[in-house]
Amino acid sequence: MSNRQNKADVILIGAGIMSATLGSLLKELTPDWEITVFERLASAGEESSNEWNNAGTGHAALCELNYTNEKADGSIDISKAIKINEQFQESMQFWSYLVKNKRIRNPQNFIMPLPHMSFVRGSQNVSFLMKRFETMFTNPLFQGMEFSDDPEKLKEWIPLIMQKRATNEPIAATKIDSGTDVNFGALTRMLFDHLESKNVNIHYKHRVVDIHRTSDGLWEVKVQNVDSGTVERHTAKFVFIGSGGGSLYLLQKSGIPEGKYIGGFPVSGIFMVCNNPDIVAAHHAKVYGKAKVGAPPMSVPHLDTRFIDNKKMLLFGPFAGFSPKFLKTGSMFDLVTSVKSDNLITMLSAGAKNIPLTKYLIKQVRLSKEQRMEELHEFIPNAKSEDWDLVVAGQRVQVIKDTEEGRGMLQFGTEVISAADGSIAALLGASPGASTAVSVMLELIKKCFPQHIHEWEPKIKEMIPSYSLSLMENQELLHEIQTSIVQTLDLAGKDQSNLKGNMNTFQKA
Ligand SMILES: Cc1cc2nc3c(=O)[nH]c(=O)nc-3n(C[C@H](O)[C@H](O)[C@H](O)COP(=O)(O)OP(=O)(O)OC[C@H]3O[C@@H](n4cnc5c(N)ncnc54)[C@H](O)[C@@H]3O)c2cc1C
């Protein structure tokens, strides 16, 4: 690959966690390749990857009830949970490699140990949670998970949630201490700082407005300087469209057949953030509840301890809602302009199928703060409105496509869409999201660089020892990896809060 001006080996569009991860993997695999990044905003990790725009859960399926469904025969299907857990283990291994090799430093600035819990009310939900626990706790990936329906035990685990709670309904929780809170914004910025130090050309305030194939088989991107309005053209052999909610627009611009008949459905998010330090100190976990009937999986409410700017915080949400924007900083016309002749029927079919969901989201957007407090009361019965503020989170654009089940089906996962020759790829969708960035980008590398994968495999295995293996079936390797990760990422759990003491302070206040 050559070095002509404006000609890179790889162009990454967007400076979120996905481009940061792909850029970092490629820099390790092939350090000489020239990589150029274009980002429309002033710095890295400002959209969905920003710490205030996502929930910061290191999704390992330890507490998210929507990853474990009850089958018709009453048994619990944990296959999705196993997949997500193994994907997260790949992310942890890569981050650990980066820290060990001094590519990034101070892991406590982006990852903290934090118990992950599921909390349910009502006898039906309690029996579901118990069955789920019984299916999971013997699995090596979920070792250490505990279950309790004893109010006294729950008071120890989650005093804030148990305070002033009526005792006449069945309640239960599971707890596992190997969970994490991940500041994906901080991690994204660290990775871009590292890439910059390795001579990656990063152009902030540069918006990609068009992409097309040149006659010599390269990809040319048309880039506009956001401040001056001037336009430049850059070419590369490989382009990654890692533009989050902006990816669909650029995929459509590329004109590749694989990008046709696909649409996007934006779902917005709102968190409530606690402004009372005594309440913040009285809770230490991510506690996931069960989605309400009719609610989409990404609106499962959770009460989360978060670590942002080295400060402990408490956030509740996200409340899902509807906004036609595809990026938080996007345009009100994003949804309308994403409808093209090829995806019109797909989009109309999705619209017809998802009227109840759209109605639900519009209703959610209109909720007053007091109505949102009612949802919070299910977690903290005596929460007071003055202790909580609303903050707008990021946008998630769910993929809409035609599948065997029908036209215009709404998808809740992430999808890599790539050209048949692997010269361009886009990442669509947002769940489980940032947590699985490493495994999703490894999948992309396998798809788009088949000619190099054999040569790169030893290095991939050095960075991610479980690559292409099942950790569940290799318990020795799992143990080895986990021991090393805990040490390198400093996850031994020294931030064990004195919850009982803190709760006393809160009650006196
Ligand atoms: C409310 C909410 C909660 C979430 N919670 C979690 C969670 O708990 N755990 C988890 O793992 N994941 C979570 N996610 C998902 C996660 O945040 C995303 O999957 C992830 O951040 C996506 O990263 P990205 O790099 O693809 O996109 P982004 O971070 O959005 O980055 C895309 C970048 O591309 C830029 N861009 C767009 N268009 C252009 C253009 N034309 N030219 C140049 N630049 C462009 C944007 O400005 C942006 O900086 C959550 C998401 C939301 C919205």
How would you characterize this protein structure?
The protein has one domain: FAD/NAD(P)-binding domain. With 509 residues, it is of the alpha+beta class. 34% of the residues lie in helices and 25% in strands. The strands form four sheets. Strands 6, 7, 8, 14, 15, 16, 17, 18, 19 and 20 form a ten-stranded mixed sheet that branches. The mean pLDDT is 93. It starts with 6 loop residues before the first strand and ends with a helix. The chain has helices at residues 17-29, 79-100, 123-136, 151-157, 159-162, 184-197, 247-254, 277-281, 334-337, 344-353, 355-365, 369-377, 437-448, 450-463, 475-488, 499-508, and strands at residues 7-13, 35-38, 69-70, 76-77, 111-113, 116-121, 146-148, 171-176, 180-182, 201-203, 206-213, 219-225, 231-241, 262-274, 286-288, 302-308, 311-321, 388-392, 396-403, 406-410, 415-418, 424-428. Helix 1 links the parallel strand 1 (7-13) and strand 2. It is built from 16 helices and 22 strands. The radius of gyration is 23 Å and the shape is globular. Residues 13-19, 38-41, 46-49, 53-57, 59, 184, 207-208, 242-244, 246, 250, 269, 318, 327, 393-396, 427, 430, 432-435 line the site of flavin-adenine dinucleotide (FAD).
Keyword list:
509 residues, alpha+beta, ten-stranded mixed sheet, 22 strands, 34% helix, binds flavin-adenine dinucleotide, oxidoreductase, MQO
